[in-house]
Amino acid sequence: MVPDDAASSPVAVRQGEIHWVDWSPGRGSEQAGRRPALIVQVDAANLSATYPNTVVATISSVGRELFTHVALDPTEQNGLKQRSYVKCEQLLTISKSRLAGRLGRITEDEMARVAQAIRYVFGL
Q1: Quick one: pLDDT at residue 22?
Q2: Which of 96, 64, 59 is nearest to 81 (CA)?
């Protein structure tokens, strides 16, 4: 039997996609408002009808020259309107029901840089 919130959650998300997320209410230095996020969770979990969550990294137009901030230039493929940064130290598990529309997806090279930064964050 599929839990109610899993059945009503969007399950067609894939690693490397950028989606809008409503981050409110944010606390401290957390993201707040409606902002983009990168899906970083493996597709086996993303496509499971019985698992209603996904793991995302926040994306912001404000970044620093840090190894954990992966710069993305705007392209038609990723849907971003300005240079943005995947903040690989800001990973969150969220309900797929919080996703509010797909912007696009990043390239395999960009995803490899994100994966490298996430490994660095966790010391892996």
Answers
A1: 83
A2: 59
